[in-house]
Amino acid sequence: MNSDSSSLSSLSEGATVSPSEKTDLTTTCPEADSPPQIHSIDVDGDLHLIVGRNECPDMHSRPSRHPSEIPHTRAVTYVVCSKTLSRSSPVWKRLLYGGFAESKKPEAGGQWTVCLPEDEPVLMKTILNIAHGRFDQVPVKWGTVKDLYLLTLLTDKYDLTHLLRPWVQGWMQAMGTSYEDEKQNGRGVIPHEAASQCIWIVWELGDEDSMEYLINDIAYGSPLNASERLEYPWKGSGPMFEGIMEPPGMAGE
After folding, report:
1. What are phi and psi of 49, to 5 degrees?
2. What is the pLDDT of residue 149?
3. Which residues of the chain have pLDDT under 70?
4. Composition bias, kind Low complexity: at what positions (predicted)?
5. Is 103 in the same domain as 143?
6. Number of C-beta neighbours around residue 104 at 10 A
7. 134: burial class by Cβ within 10 Å (0-12, 13-18, 19+)?
8. Residue 214 and residue 199 in contact, taking contact as beta carbons nearer than 8 Å
9. Cα–Cα distance, 65 to 63 (Å, whole number)
10. Residue 99 is part of which domain span?
11. At a CB cut-off of 8 Å and minimum separation 6, what does 83 contact?
């Protein structure tokens, strides 16, 4: 729901045209320097989108095992259609065709590559599948509240939330069930982090009824702390939206 300018501002911090910088661990961990796996979203695609980065666990704290036995976070290269991306999002259109560094196509025969090291590959794959019409690859039921929260953060960043509309009803029903289950297990309360994430999700997806329900449900059971912010009544919890994206104007509600 951000404007193009705000989305582009955040995008410019995470997009590069060269491979992500190698960490200091690269010299001691061969796994951290392995090339990204390639997945074809569009077999005729003209753009290689490198999403995420190779990250290695701290060499000083890892167990004494071979690097190949340690879980690593890996970048993924998605072969996509640049025109499809530009039609899907004004942010991507400006990024790819608006005169930015990423807009510079290589010389004849070269590969057009854009790196998005700050983004999560699996979540981006869902968005790319939707944008390219590969609906059979899109989950009918989403995973956890946190997963849906992270997905909507990504669609907000690139102004792509409108693509999720066909799946919103099913995903929201599943989230509502999860929310009520959490309340039952927590004797009427759910962790403040999950509650904050739920509010962001329903705001980003434009579900006004769920937004009203959540705000009332949480506000009635949340006293104000010394800073006049809602203090969610959960053991060990802090203020609402602590470390969670907050919808505009929520602090004043």
Report:
1. -105, 110
2. 93
3. 1-33, 56-72, 185-191, 221-224, 228-240, 249-253
4. 1-12
5. no
6. 9
7. middle
8. yes
9. 6
10. 35-55+70-136
11. none
pTM: 0.74
Q: Domain boundary residue among 86, 113, 136?
A: 136
Q: Which runs of consecutive H residues, i.e. helices, occur in 67-164?
A: 82-88, 90-97, 121-131, 145-157
What pLDDT, on a 0 to 100 scale, did the predictor assign at position 8? 45
For residue 92, what pLDDT is reported?
94
Contact 67, 31 (CB under 8 A): yes
102 located within any domain: yes
pLDDT confidence of residue 161: 96
- In the prediction, which pLDDT does 194 show? 79
Q: What is the sign of the dihedral through the CA atoms of 194, 137, 162 and 120?
A: positive
CB-based burial, 202-227: b 16+ in 10 Å, e otherwise:
bbbbebeebbeebbebbeeebeeeee
Query: In the numeric block, which tokens belong to residue 157?
Result: 């960043």
Does 23 fall in a domain? Answer: no
Number of domains in the chain: 2
Which amino acid is residue 199, in one-letter code? I
In a domain? residue 11: no
CB distance 95 to 56 below 8 Å: no
Q: Which two tokens stand for residue 246?
A: 């907050």
